[in-house]
Amino acid sequence: MATDTLPVYTKKDFQTDQEVRWCPGCGDYAILSAVQSVFAELKVPREKFVFISGIGCSSRFPYYMNTFGFHTIHGRAPAVATGVKLVHPELDVWVATGDGDSLSIGGNHTIHMLRRNVGLKVLMFNNRIYGLTKGQYSPTSEFGKKAKSTPFGSLDRPFDPISLAIGAEATFVARSVDVFQQHLKDTLKAAAAHKGSAYVEILQNCNIFNDGAWKTLTEKDARSEHMVQLEHGKPLVFGKNREKGIRENGLNLEVVQLGNGIAEHDLLIHDAANPNPAYAFLLSRMEYLPDFPTPIGVFRSVEAPRYEDLIAKQIQDVIAQRGKGDLGKLLRAGDTWEVKA
Amino acid sequence: MATDTLPVYTKKDFQTDQEVRWCPGCGDYAILSAVQSVFAELKVPREKFVFISGIGCSSRFPYYMNTFGFHTIHGRAPAVATGVKLVHPELDVWVATGDGDSLSIGGNHTIHMLRRNVGLKVLMFNNRIYGLTKGQYSPTSEFGKKAKSTPFGSLDRPFDPISLAIGAEATFVARSVDVFQQHLKDTLKAAAAHKGSAYVEILQNCNIFNDGAWKTLTEKDARSEHMVQLEHGKPLVFGKNREKGIRENGLNLEVVQLGNGIAEHDLLIHDAANPNPAYAFLLSRMEYLPDFPTPIGVFRSVEAPRYEDLIAKQIQDVIAQRGKGDLGKLLRAGDTWEVKA
Amino acid sequence: MATITTPSETGLRRKREVIDQAVIRFAGDSGDGMQITGSQFTNTVALYGNDLSTFPDYPAEIRAPAGTLPGVSGFQVHFSSSEIYTPGDSVDVLIAMNPAALKVNLADLKKNGILIVNTDSFEENDLRKAQMTSNPLEDHTLDGFRLFAVDLTKLTRAALAELGLDTKSMDRCKNFFALGMCYWLYNRTMDSTYRWLDDKFKKKPLLAEANKLAMKAGYSYCEATEAFQVTYEIPPAKLTPGMYRNISGNAALALGFVAASQKSGLPLFLGSYPITPASDILHELSMYKDFGVITFQAEDEIAAITSAIGAAYAGALGMTTTSGPGMALKTEALGLAVAVELPLVVCDIQRGGPSTGLPTKTEQADLLQALYGRNSEAPIPVIAASSPGDCFWVALEASRIAVKYMVPVIVLSDGYLANGAEPWRIPELKDLPEIPVHFVTDPEGFLPYKRDPQTLARPWAIPGTPGLEHRIGGIEKKDVTGNINYEPLNHEKMVRLRAAKVEAIAQDIPEVVPAGEPDGDLLIVSWGSTYGSITAALRALQAAGNTHRIGHVHLRHLNPFPRNLGEVLKRYKKVLVPEMNMGQLLQVLRAKYLVDAEGYNKIQGRPFMVAEIEAKIEEVLA
Amino acid sequence: MATITTPSETGLRRKREVIDQAVIRFAGDSGDGMQITGSQFTNTVALYGNDLSTFPDYPAEIRAPAGTLPGVSGFQVHFSSSEIYTPGDSVDVLIAMNPAALKVNLADLKKNGILIVNTDSFEENDLRKAQMTSNPLEDHTLDGFRLFAVDLTKLTRAALAELGLDTKSMDRCKNFFALGMCYWLYNRTMDSTYRWLDDKFKKKPLLAEANKLAMKAGYSYCEATEAFQVTYEIPPAKLTPGMYRNISGNAALALGFVAASQKSGLPLFLGSYPITPASDILHELSMYKDFGVITFQAEDEIAAITSAIGAAYAGALGMTTTSGPGMALKTEALGLAVAVELPLVVCDIQRGGPSTGLPTKTEQADLLQALYGRNSEAPIPVIAASSPGDCFWVALEASRIAVKYMVPVIVLSDGYLANGAEPWRIPELKDLPEIPVHFVTDPEGFLPYKRDPQTLARPWAIPGTPGLEHRIGGIEKKDVTGNINYEPLNHEKMVRLRAAKVEAIAQDIPEVVPAGEPDGDLLIVSWGSTYGSITAALRALQAAGNTHRIGHVHLRHLNPFPRNLGEVLKRYKKVLVPEMNMGQLLQVLRAKYLVDAEGYNKIQGRPFMVAEIEAKIEEVLA
Ligand SMILES: Cc1ncc(C[n+]2csc(CCOP(=O)(O)OP(=O)(O)O)c2C)c(N)n1
Ligand SMILES: Cc1ncc(C[n+]2csc(CCOP(=O)(O)OP(=O)(O)O)c2C)c(N)n1
Ligand code: SF4
Ligand code: SF4
Ligand SMILES: [Mg+2]
Ligand SMILES: [Mg+2]
């Protein structure tokens, strides 16, 4: 539909009358606010938006968005959303999910959705805990986590959601943080603009059951030391005074001090469009190396046909060849014979 | 137990009286034979072997192995096997599964088993088809596959099992081929020797529903052109006359002709023990680049604590601190009061 | 039995008996093409106008090695000059292409029945593969049958000698030699098979020729040799006039849903994960892209049903197909469909269980799972098909109810219906039920759970409709508004509303009219694929001059039951409920109507034999 | 009701009434510490020797903003000098810390009941958060109650002025001011709470001091002011002698399984995925590593149960815990456990449904799912707990049956039992049942499905045992050998054997003995958490001089039923089945015994009130 006929939306247009039931101080509020503002700018008629979620605090999200919304069952949002998208490819379908919903019970649907490149925008609220069920460790909780079900510390090694998504053939993978409103909005817009599956990990604080999980990244001063922003076409620079950078070193990366001979153009220049997922994967492992920062931003964004478009096209092609199906003919297909009165 | 008291096994000792019910010519026969010979050499008392499978032609495997065997339900073998391993870490537990069983319905259990590094040896028979259900495409089938459920061609992009496993934090990932008996046996031995989760993709031919799926790799002459063997500490050389090699090129790889200035020591020397999974991931993407060969062998093999050992240790530690639990005390724990007669 | 004696071309005088019906079974190795042979014979007798019923009997999913017992594949055809309802309890003619086939099938051959064996495949190691210690052609195993030992392989090769084919290809034609013999035996023309061969081997005319020659050779072999002293004539049956085709249950289901999609104007969405014996529905529907059918092979059964729920939410006719184990995996999502009140059709093609059980065998044991296999109170309408052709109509009825009442509907079929086939009278488009659909579009007064006063259905408001933005989910909802609500009385109200909506469907389905006597000594109540055997048994008893007053109610609707069922049950002294399970419908009838009904349970992975039902009825009435 | 008038220290003369029982509810914002206050009061009355029953009422899972209606948290204590069975229908004393708490709970306060409110939290915006338009303290909402409007916050701050705490910390103590008032009102000593505070705040003595001061202040406030004219005395109850503790259903289940592990000598393995209201069992068991308990938080419910099956296969006491939606996901794996005949215990802590439903509310609607929620014929023993303490014994019984019969067992509890607590008589170790286990070790004559002639259990042959290498799986197996087998008669035999094995358990469980009259006018049949309300109602009717002959059978075993149940049912003119569902046990009883039982169904996410049951019984008998 012609966008000029579009009503001009404001954030308010995407708020509902439902009382928001997250704990005071929960990072989900910030995410909700960012999504509402971004939706107002997307130039999409409101009725085209669909928000689908599983179960979890994060999955209550659709109730607070004045769009079509479906709060489904635990872990299954990507599959439900796939059904919606295959029937109506023109809808703008978003998924709200959590680290448990998307990576624990929902892990399989998540990786298959990514592999198929279904045109869904997935917002994965990663608070490294099961919030709704009051604080058990999750597949993204750090090793040794003491939580409700692990009084002596958890023994599972966590997933890196970015690595997992890339290993599952994702075409768009990004990471942002609840409290970095501008960065979050930019990331959401990038996701909205991507044609296929967009998997966005949003680091979110659960101030009740896992407060400060992302402290090292969010605390004002620490921040610049522990985090590097990925910007397409820009060098990987970080540090309080942008004095450090990431440089190629054989097949690996190294942290270098800028200055005395090393300039920004010597650094790794981020290429989100690199067709080889090995590049984005390498970036996703950086934070596990000593003294390396945690990257945020768009790791990978490459073009690939959307599943729903391929399915629609296959149907069109067959119809183009055979003509629209004729039920009468279909029923009479194959060997038939007549029994006379 | 002291291995010198071990009976000396032969392949026969691992065969059962059950009539093998795979189609004549099925690649599964070759795999069965390789596993039986390898088991005879592993110096493990036969009763310590457990073979657990899901559902599929490949999952019939345990019936033909004279070890403990459990043919469970579709996709759940890794979870059942995890239960066995946590209770008896000393057992040698193997999983037989297929591309559908392990990557379609069983995808979530597979990635979580790998993330936890449960000490299971997973043999994934990849015939790029659902054999038992008579020929639907699978998550590893090539895009556009015409199969029972996709008469006009499939529209799903396949998983690369190696990439997916690495993205799921796997500590051991390898690939071999049903018909390369020696290579297969060596790979199985390497898997057996690994302490944590070992994920072995075995390219297998389903001569009934997907015959020749791996032709380009298995055909005598084509073979050397399309395949490169990964050997720890050895350069990546391939080609009919070992005239080609893989060399580092920035963060990427390139195919080079050996000779005129380029010697084997200039090539990428395989390091399966590289702690950074990005290295193995890069190798797993090679085959998708023009003119690159498909790697077989051990992509990644790194040490990490086994889940079952960590769990056993946590229990020992708690007992060491608190002493063995006393039921009488436990029942009386907390506020109690006595009601006198 | 009329008997004409005709001079045959060769001058031999043979009897030609006119009989009412016959059962013939082709049995051989998976590789011997028995399914094709069977279908060809089926087409021919169908075109001729006989009534018929067929049943293929494949080996378990995996192909066993050639010549072994698990490798045996069979195809049975029952054809007649009067109406028939089953593929037949036992066979008049058995074609056994190898020892394994003989061993597996001999038990079903009638005393003094005709047995055609391919003697060329009775070598030492053929016998060993079939685990036979002695050669049945030589010991006395086969006494009491009319044995025709034919060198099928040799004769076929001889017939094809001219064509210059390799022996492998020649031997592939021997099933057509056997087919030719059967055509001769039943005085049938080979024309339709000629046509089929020409069409099938358009690109390989040589093979078409070879198979024709083999078939002719088989025909003339009987003609020429003294082999058979009799041939049989089975006149056409008096079937309801109309256009007919042969159809299997799974194919009929697929057609039914395409028809439902066309009649409702809704795009058909199938989310499915392959499983025996349901996979063929997915295969069939995936061919109908020209009808806009969307088939999605999901990563598992949960994604299959939840994607279908998403499709229904988006305004499609959403459906999913599976069998027992897959059905078990869908139960949580079924609860969601009940809570959000969206139309959905779930087909469970039942197979032997528990767990993986007998994947290729039939059973009726998922009824209680269909009725109660969900957490909490989640009532769902359940409908069952009674014959392969009926699957078509059941698909339409399920879709009609789902859409009209905004409710998930479960369709029960089973392996026997799925693979079995029968002649099916092709309906005129105008005879198909209408399936009216109404999407709300007017935001004025729209509330997600404001129900239609008559059907209690909530409005179907699909994404993309301006002004209807709203939220639904699996948490309990406030009546009318649909907002999340935990109030005690509202919950009880919603639970009762969901139940009332399903109960109300009883007003929208026909009352039961017992076949046979409207009241009397015995009422047989049944459902699903037992229809054929029971009906045949009742006809047989009648024919045998049974004097008791017997009625038969075969239920299509298992939830809710037809409104007059309770009253009908009271009209008979006794009630018998035959089921291929341990008594599931029985239990529901007893609970609901407090009727002291008796069960007759067979749980062997195969249908009731007509004779078994007859015997049971006589026992009950004795 | 005895009345003594005592001079109090302040010289004020007050009435002290001796009464039999009281119900008190502490209600406030989630942040107000009502759960702690309630448990402290509970401990004190318990130590004093009263019988008691408590029920916490949390807000839905997510913490709502402070002061709002969804944020209200309550804790109810019913204590008495005689035996009691429920937390009480309505309350004698309500403590409301804010307007929201008042609004949510007032309806349950008895006419003329005592109402203590914190006037400091009735400002404009407190009222707005509670969606109140006018101030209840000023309009006439509270007429008809004995209102005690106390400036709790101010008074607490005043009492703590000396300590130099910030106001936030001071205000955190106001719940102890209220607690002090209640102690005074019921003439209780504060000693045990002192002890608890000392222990809890070992590291922060200042906070211990603060809370003590607040509590004392509350106590002396009543002492000093004219506020209360009466105090109450509730003498100790005559309970069975022994050592007691207060225990919730989930804690009791956890203890029961640890006990089962110890008595059987089997390591306990719990595979679980968190879900309300079952999660606490996982939390509890994860603390018992010193008992060698292995707790595995799986990626989903399917991995949870299948890992437990693997553990059982390996020789552990395998179990899994969940609630309705998770139970639905486990049904396919349950079928596998039935087929491979391994011991397994599955606990379903029921909650309101369907689908996500009412996650924090109670319901009894998973019975039919437990009995029939699987593909094909897969019978499983089902037992249900009747009270928080009974959960302990049910865990032992389930484990005993699972191991003895090599069968999965389903345990049903619900949200009400899970979170509710009652005094529990701690058993002597010698009073715990034995759970003998036999692992086969002798290869001689070992066959995986050779059954024990008496129990029909197959041998438990665990990996690692030399010479016992064998294969099992979900496909149908040959009787005795356990090899894959598709034969029709073998299948029927195995189906009947699995059923017979479960049926046989009826010989191994006690017959039912009705409470009350052994025969007569009315039999009440019930199961699960309704035990308390029904028992209390029957006592009440008796006390009220009811003359009808009423019996009560409360079923622990729901499959198989006790062997004499059918006969007992016949002894009464009428049968009434109260359930927190739409009539699930009712349906099974009617089907099995053809008894025209009547259901009494409440499905509101909360237990029956004693008065509701009384009224229903009177209606039925009228
Ligand atoms: C089938 C099923 N299993 C378990 C649950 C209980 N449950 C609800 S949310 C949740 C995990 C939530 O964690 P996450 O996805 O990280 O969301 P968060 O609350 O942290 O935002 C669980 C285990 C459920 N509702 N349904
Ligand atoms: C719950 C469930 N869903 C579906 C099936 C049907 N099924 C059996 S095996 C299989 C796929 C097998 O494919 P794969 O794992 O690749 O094994 P293969 O036969 O190719 O060796 C399917 C879909 C089943 N048995 N159980
Ligand atoms: S529990 Fe945590 S995640 Fe959930 S609403 Fe509260 S703060 Fe947010
Ligand atoms: S179907 Fe394919 S995979 Fe299965 S046994 Fe036959 S050849 Fe092997
Ligand atoms: Mg979370
Ligand atoms: Mg496969």
Structure description:
Chain A contains eleven helices and twelve strands. By secondary structure, chain A is an alpha/beta fold. In chain A, the strands form two sheets. In chain A, strands 2-1-3-4-6-5-11-7 form an eight-stranded mixed beta sheet, sandwiched between helices. In chain A, strands 8-9-10 form a three-stranded antiparallel beta sheet. The relative contact order of chain A is 0.11. The model of chain A has no long low-confidence stretch (mean pLDDT 96). With 622 residues, chain C is of the alpha/beta class. Chain C has 21 helices and 24 strands. Chains A and C meet through strand 1, strand 2, helix 2, helix 4 and helix 10 of A and helix 1, strand 10, helix 9, helix 11 and helix 13 of C. Bound molecules: thiamine diphosphate (2 copies), iron/sulfur cluster (2 copies) and magnesium ion (2 copies). One thiamine diphosphate (TPP) sits between chains B (55-58, 74, 98-101, 125, 127, 129-133, 138) and C (273-275, 301, 325-326, 329, 356).
Number of helices of chain A: 11
Mean pLDDT of chain A, nearest integer? 96
Oligomer: heterotetramer
Kindly state the percentage of residues in helix of chain C: 25-40%
Mean model confidence by pLDDT of chain C: 94
Helix content of chain A: 25-40%
Q: What's the gyration radius of chain A in Å?
A: 23 Å
Largest sheet of chain C: 7 strands, mixed
- For the secondary structure, the number of strands of chain C is 24
Q: Biggest interface in this structure?
A: A-C, 59 and 69 residues
Radius of gyration of chain C: 27 Å
* Main sheet overview of chain A: 8 strands, mixed
Overall shape of chain A: it is globular
- Unreliable spans of chain A: none
Q: Would you identify the regions of chain C where 5 or more consecutive residues have pLDDT less than 50?
A: 1-8
Strand content of chain A: 15-25%
Give the CA-CA distance, first to last residue of chain A.
Answer: 56 Å
Q: Which structural class fits the helix and strand makeup of chain C? A: alpha/beta
By DSSP (H or I, 4+ residues per run), the number of helices of chain C equals 21
C-alpha termini separation of chain C: 32 Å
Strand order of the largest sheet of chain A: 2-1-3-4-6-5-11-7
